[in-house]
Each structure stands twice: as C-alpha cells, then as structure tokens.
Amino acid sequence: MAHPDKKPITLVGVPMEEGSGRRGAAMGPAALRIAGIDRALIDLGYEVQDAGDIRPVPARDLPVLPKALNLQTVGAFVRALEAQTYDIAAAGGLPILLGGDHALSIGSVAGMARHAAEVGRPLFVLWLDAHSDFNSPETSPSGNIHGMPVAHFCGLSEFAPIFPAERPFVDPARVYQVGIRSVDPIERELIREHGVNVFDMRAIDENGVAVIMKRIIEQVELAKGLLHVSFDVDFLDPDLAPGVGTTVPGGATFREAHLIMEMLCDSGLVSSLDLVELNPFLDDRGKSARILVEMAASLFGRRIFDRPTRAA
User: Fold this and answer.
1) HEC readout, 151-170
2) Strand 9-14 relative to strand 123-128: parallel, antiparallel, unpaired?
3) 6 with 48: CB under 8 angstroms?
4) Mind giving me the DSSP string for 208-250?
5) Which of 94, 186, 226, 246 is a good FRET partner for 2, with 20 to 30 A between their CA atoms?
6) Has residue 52 been placed in a domain?
7) Residue 4: inside a domain, yes or no?
C-alpha cells in the first residue's frame, strides 16, 4: 500500500543510445525493469506508475551537425522527455528517468527547470558522474552529445534550436558535480570560468563524501531549492559496475554511493532522478543494473542494514 506522505513516482524509459557513440545503452530501461526497480520502490511504500518507453520519430526540423552527432534523434528524445518530466512534476509526482545515455538529461533537467520556475524555486543539479559533460560541439573531441548536457541546460551551448531560447536555465553555480575523474582540458577551463562546483575523487578521498554532501544539502536547503539527481553508472568504480561504455578507474565505492543516497533520502530534497549510461551488453550478468536499483532504493528509504545477506 502506498504511503500517503510519499510523492507518487513515475518511471519513464528513455531507450536512447545515439548520444553516446556506441550501441547498447538503449537496453538500459529494460535491464532496470528486469532488475526490479518498480518492485523495490513499491516495497518502500511508494505508488509507482511505469509510463513505458519514449519512442519519438527524429526531429527533422533540426540541422545535421557533424560535431553534434545524431542530433535529430537525440533532439526528438529530449523534447519528448522535457514535456513528460514537466508534466509529472507539475502534477505533484516524482519522475525517474531510466536511461539511456546521459544526453537524456538535456530533456529531464529542462523539464524540471520549467517546473521549478513555475513554482518559484531554484533548481539545483547533483551530477554523480566520472565526467563533467560540459562540452559543446566546438570543444567536444568526439561530437557525442552525451558529453554536452550540463553546458546545454546551463544555457551555455545553444548549438541547435532544440528548445525555446527563452526557457529557464540552471545557474552553473547550482550544479554540483561529485565523483569527477575525467575532464577535457577545455572543459576544465569552462567549468572554472562559469563557477560549477566540482568535487572530484581527490576531494572525496581527502574530505569524505559525508562532508561534501552536507555542504551541498545545506546550500539547497538554504535556497529552498528543488534537487535533480543525475546518476551515471560510471560514477561507480567499474569493478563494482562494469556495464557502462565509458569506464574510468577509481570511482566511488559501494559504501560511498550508498551514503550519498541515504543522506539525500534524509534531506527530503530530491524531486527527480536520472539513472543513465547503463549498457547491459557490457554488463556482467545484470550486476550493474541490480546495483543501480539498490542505489535508487537507498535514495528512497532503504537502509543498507535492511538488505538480506546473500548466500556466497
């Protein structure tokens, strides 16, 4: 039975891989469903609706750009996702976006920014990722759009008319990137110039995630903000979660990630969630999908000591 004090959750599948430059992430939503994300949240007392997968036709009004690959397909996905994310939040629900590559956050964050502007609250973004994703077509070494979403939703990379130019943007100073360990040189300069808050793995090693998360949570609380969490599988160490096409050694441990989720749960601030870059084709028997489901469950109230011990 759903708990009356908990926002209803809507799952939206985003089977998009065209932003990443390799195949496989389109299977991510199916893998998360097979791993039981709906049941994990229902067991925690949430009303959960699965809205199915977004399946848009390519946006032919968008240009073909050699340095923003598959723009028409990515543009169609994020337009549909922006509208659906906004509708769920405006109706009092909490959207969870099942990816799909990280370009999808162009749409999810834009939808939440529109909702936040309407309710008169600032939107903050917690970016749990190995990468800063602050490129534009001009700076990207690959042209893959999954490396561009943060610059785009901050209004600093309007490389195509995907959304109306007058839409609400996210202040870069309200973006908190945690777990970063792979940044292009130009990205590093842009991040510093625009005031994005970056806590790389060295900051985690030196300070611990608890200190960092307390600081972030305090800032969101002080501003009475909404918080969008964008969780990339490669935030985790690849030994823990190998099912991602952009593995970077030295990621967050199981305990560090769980602590972040539990502190976010305690804060009550999270208004939306991306789970992205899961590539089941590269996974080890569903290991990464199961861990992502455990992280989502932790974010919504499950404690580590609630988990049954598995047989060896």
Assistant:
1) HHHCCCCCCCCCCCCCCCCC
2) unpaired
3) no
4) -HHHHHHHHHHHHHHTT-EEEEEEEGGGB-TTT----SS--SS
5) 226
6) yes
7) no
Question: Which residue intervals of 131-208 are DSSP H helices?
Answer: 149-153, 185-194, 201-207
Predicted local confidence at residue 169, as pLDDT: 98
Respond yes or no: is residue 237 known to be catalytic.
no
Find the farthest-apart pair of alpha carbons in the chain and give their distance in angstroms, rounded: 55
What span, in angstroms and rounded, lies between the C-alpha atoms of 142 and 145? 9
Peptide bond into 107 cis (omega under 30): no
Our answer to whether residue 129 is catalytic in this structure is yes
Q: In a 3-state reduction of DSSP, which class is residue 302?
A: coil
For the entire predicted model, the pTM comes to 0.95
Question: Is the residue at 308 inside a domain?
Answer: no
Structural element, H or E, at residue 125: strand 123-128
Banded pLDDT at 3 (limits 50, 70, 90): low
What's the confidence (pLDDT) of residue 136? 94
Q: Which residue among 129, 200, 274, 283 is the active-site one?
A: 129
Is 146 a catalytic site residue?
yes
Can you tell me the distance from the alpha carbon of 242 to that of 248, in angstroms, rounded to the nearest whole number? 10
Residue 253 belongs to some domain of the structure: yes
Decide if 277 is catalytic.
yes
133 is catalytic: yes
